[in-house]
Amino acid sequence: MFCPPAELQKKCEALDANWRAYRAAPRFEQFVEFAITVSSFAEFLHSKGLSGLHQIARDLEQQALSLFGDELSHPVPEHVFDELASRIAGLTARVAGYIENGSRPIEERRAGSQDSDPADDLAPPRRVWFIGDKSPAWRDLITQLGYFGVRVEVFGWQNVPNAQDEPAILMLDTLGLSATEASRRIKMIRARFSASNLLGLNIEADFSCLQAILGAGCDFCFVRATPQPAIMAKIVELNGGEEEAPYRVLVVEDSLTASKLVQRTLGENGIESLAIAQPREVLTTLKRYQPDLILMDMHMPDCTGVEAARVIRQHTEFLSIPIVYLSGETDVALQIEALRLGGDHFLTKPFNPVILNAIVKSKIERYRSLRRSMFHDSLTGLLNHTSSKQRLDTALNLAMAEQEPMAVAMIDIDHFKKVNDSYGHPVGDQVIRSLAWLLKQRLRKSDILGRYGGEEFLVALPGATLTQAFQILDRIRHDFSQIKHPFNETWFNTTFSSGVAQFPLISNGEALVKQADEALYEAKRAGRDRVVVRG
Ligand SMILES: Nc1nc2c(ncn2[C@@H]2O[C@H](COP(=O)(O)OP(=O)(O)OP(=O)(O)O)[C@@H](O)[C@H]2O)c(=O)[nH]1
């Protein structure tokens, strides 16, 4: 999630320009432009993981929305002008300071790893600072994080370094501090760090304390006695920095002017869109474009939006895609009927662009989260069995078309039954998660990684030869065997075995998995803790 300083600067200048335009001509339409830019800037900062700047922009957005009103509400009173001006000046100064500091954006590791050679040493370590009075409890957590490429530095509250080189995450331990004192210190840290995610540790679980800590600028709170694996999981997740594909919206609208307006509004917020004027093209376009949401005009010449939605809902693959109607219709009975017949929301024209974006985004977030749970495994977040197989077939077709090699590996944790029997099922789960984190950290984004069964994983490395695949997997095997899994006051090690097969030696997905499985059993028979390739 690298954020080029020039892009940040440009977005900030656009905000400033729109604000000046409103000051010069304080009309409603100009305020709408300003509010759209604020909203788009806040979204941009969020998407780039610039947590501190995002919080300031979000507050500004809230204020702008509360002043939205209509033609009669503008110009806003003079003291409101001054308040907005001071917030904007504060935000632009923070952005300028951040750019000047040359602070590294927080999630560059994967950006750098994507196009690298399969045998490259991937992923420079990610940095986390622990702030607080040193606690022995951190030692284990810091060691564990080290296994997954996360480098931790520890500082007391009094000697937090300057924000020249912001870490990805600041863990703020509030143990022994009153809620008021903790909030005061967190506020100071938030004011200094524009990008880092702030995670509060050992926070009192009561409502007002959490409210105060979040209000002071913390992004996430761990209440007292949160189990270590939960803290680990959050840190590893934030460090993963996986960039999501842009949201996609299909606009079905017969008026060219209306669709252009909608597309422009979506585009301002980084949402991709495609417009069609003919409802009868909707099914083929849905298949081809694969949007996350449909914005549907209610009244079109040959077909109403409701009729189109009913046709869409006849297809199982489009049963859950959100449909939001756009219409001049204010008849409540008709709106309810439209929602009953397959729609998810109703927006009346002329639409408020900021509300349109907010609704589109929240519907897409839910839809994507639903799809994630359908295609991903809940324990590790990796692809589940079915989707790993599907992704493998797609990657294989691509490898065939491009005449590139591709290695496929099966990985299975050794003597895992013993882990469960000796330490319990939850500890076994944590071992599975650790292997998933390690694989995720070491493989490229273009590689395929799935949890194939209980303690079995499938990995496909497009472009990798058998030799390269062996090098990569054997290094991961070695590093996994070094991990000390904590158990009560002690720890234990565990290992995995792996078997590897390769396209084009075998050219069918199922046969590749079978061959890799056979190599895996050879590795198990030969004594485990090894990688066997089938050439
Ligand atoms: N904790 C936990 N255990 C699981 C999960 N899924 C499967 N298992 C356990 O994993 C163990 C797999 O054991 P086996 O297939 O006999 O193999 P193994 O003990 O790993 O021995 P080898 O593979 O021969 O080295 C079984 O005891 C399963 O109950 C899971 O999601 N969590």
TrEMBL record:
<dbReference type="InterPro" id="IPR001789">
    <property type="entry name" value="Sig_transdc_resp-reg_receiver"/>
</dbReference>
<dbReference type="GO" id="GO:1902201">
    <property type="term" value="P:negative regulation of bacterial-type flagellum-dependent cell motility"/>
</dbReference>
<dbReference type="InterPro" id="IPR029787">
    <property type="entry name" value="Nucleotide_cyclase"/>
</dbReference>
<dbReference type="GO" id="GO:0043709">
    <property type="term" value="P:cell adhesion involved in single-species biofilm formation"/>
</dbReference>
<feature type="domain" description="GGDEF">
    <location>
        <begin position="404"/>
        <end position="535"/>
    </location>
</feature>
<dbReference type="Pfam" id="PF00072">
    <property type="entry name" value="Response_reg"/>
</dbReference>
<dbReference type="Pfam" id="PF00990">
    <property type="entry name" value="GGDEF"/>
</dbReference>
<dbReference type="InterPro" id="IPR000160">
    <property type="entry name" value="GGDEF_dom"/>
</dbReference>
<feature type="domain" description="Response regulatory">
    <location>
        <begin position="248"/>
        <end position="364"/>
    </location>
</feature>
<dbReference type="GO" id="GO:0000160">
    <property type="term" value="P:phosphorelay signal transduction system"/>
</dbReference>
<protein>
    <recommendedName>
        <fullName>diguanylate cyclase</fullName>
        <ecNumber>2.7.7.65</ecNumber>
    </recommendedName>
</protein>
<dbReference type="InterPro" id="IPR050469">
    <property type="entry name" value="Diguanylate_Cyclase"/>
</dbReference>
<dbReference type="GO" id="GO:0005886">
    <property type="term" value="C:plasma membrane"/>
</dbReference>
<dbReference type="InterPro" id="IPR011006">
    <property type="entry name" value="CheY-like_superfamily"/>
</dbReference>
<feature type="modified residue" description="4-aspartylphosphate">
    <location>
        <position position="297"/>
    </location>
</feature>
<dbReference type="GO" id="GO:0052621">
    <property type="term" value="F:diguanylate cyclase activity"/>
</dbReference>
<keyword id="KW-0597">Phosphoprotein</keyword>
<dbReference type="InterPro" id="IPR043128">
    <property type="entry name" value="Rev_trsase/Diguanyl_cyclase"/>
</dbReference>
